[in-house]
UniProtKB/TrEMBL annotation:
CDD domains hit by this protein: AAT_like (cd00609)
Domain Aminotransferase class I/classII large intervals: 55-309
Keyword flag Lyase: yes
Catalytic activity: O-phospho-L-threonine + H(+) = (R)-1-aminopropan-2-yl phosphate + CO2
Cofactor: pyridoxal 5'-phosphate
Pathway: Cofactor biosynthesis; adenosylcobalamin biosynthesis
Name of protein: threonine-phosphate decarboxylase
GO molecular function terms attached to this record: pyridoxal phosphate binding; threonine-phosphate decarboxylase activity
EC number: 4.1.1.81
Protein source organism: marine sediment metagenome
KW Protein biosynthesis (keyword) present: no
Pfam families reported in the protein's UniProt record: Aminotran_1_2
Length: 328
């Protein structure tokens, strides 16, 4: 099993701090996610998933793209897509969300991990290129023109460009959704990050109808629970909340960057949902913050920390006090 953020149970045991006493900044998920209504219809718990409900229409309106498939979180697509090609050579960013490389390796493909600066030179030898945009954890943001140039070269020989846009919702102007569907381009989106609803396990794949039909056949029936379908439909339809988040998230991210900088944890990069700090002291900082009940995401290669956004004003104050103690 690969290591991910949010594993508070292990941290609670390691540092002997109750789960309820932690400030979890390890996941890069919107801490003030879409507010799920307290009262939901009883039928969403007793019905099998209704394929022809309002979910697809709501997703098509939100993403402004008609050719999509709803899946059980983008993770389901990450694991399934490698099974849809014969063994080939796959280029992936590093560092990046490790499940992509793991899934292609598990399916028997040859994986080449690349820094972004090496992609142009490596592309002629690749059949598939997987990009996370903006990247996790480095927050590197690729322009649509650069991605489309890579896609064109791959598509000419039957290759794929897969772009995981899990962190894209706050900056939709950088998305490639307006280019779908086109042969050789596959986009992944998630409800978990921007909407702050990872527990629903809902994501979407955008590609040509032929590929989506094949993926649906591979994944099988009822991939998403009816309750998740219902709540996701409401969240995707709430344009006022979405607009508000696109205004407030950048401000919160800048506030986080400013606080980290003030205490000499200068962010290397960041996006609207997290800040990334690259430093040889990352493990020491991670441990010292964990001793105060603040959980960050530690990366070994390169040595770095990812800080998600605090939820409440008290959480912001707690982080500031912990950093002050750490740097004193």
């Amino acid at each position: 099993m690969l290591e991910h953020g949010g594993n508070l149970a292990a941290a609670s045991q390691q540092y002997n701090i109750p789960l309820s006493d932690w400030l979890d900044l390890s996941t890069g998920i919107n801490p003030n996610g879409w507010p799920v209504p307290e009262h939901l219809p009883n039928t969403i718990w007793s019905h099998l998933p209704i394929e022809y409900d309002d979910l697809i229409a709501a997703a098509q309106a939100y993403y402004q793209c008609d050719d999509l498939l709803a899946v059980a979180g983008s993770q389901a697509a990450i694991q399934a897509l490698p099974r849809m090609r014969q063994q080939c050579r796959v280029g992936l960013l590093t560092p990046a969300y490790a499940e992509h490389a793991h899934a292609w390796q598990q399916a028997g493909h040859s994986v080449v991990e690349l820094a972004s600066s090496a992609i142009n030179d490596a592309l002629p030898d690749l059949d598939v290129l997987v990009i996370i945009n903006p990247n996790n954890p480095t927050a590197e943001l690729f322009s649509p023109s650069q991605l489309l140039a890579w896609h064109q070269e791959l598509a000419q020989r039957g290759g794929w460009l897969i772009v995981d846009e899990a962190f894209m919702d706050a900056t939709p102007e950088f998305s490639l959704l307006n280019k779908c569907p086109v042969e050789g381009l596959i986009l992944l989106r998630s409800i978990g990050k921007f909407f702050g609803l990872p527990g629903l396990r809902v994501g979407f794949v955008f590609a040509t109808p032929t590929l989506l039909n094949a993926l649906a056949e591979l994944l099988g029936p009822w991939p998403i629970a009816q309750a998740s379908r219902y709540i996701t439909t409401l969240a995707l339809s709430d344009t006022d909340w979405q607009q508000q988040q696109r205004q407030t998230l950048p401000l919160s991210s800048k506030r986080l960057s400013d606080i980290l900088t003030r205490y000499n944890l200068l962010p290397t990069a960041g996006c609207n949902l997290f800040q990334w700090v690259c430093s040889s002291q990352a493990e020491t900082w991670h441990q010292q913050l964990a001793q105060q009940g603040i959980f960050t995401r530690l990366f070994k290669q390169p040595a770095s920390l990812r800080f998600g956004l605090p939820k409440t004003e008290l959480d912001w104050q707690r982080l500031t006090q912990a950093l002050e103690k750490l740097c004193s």
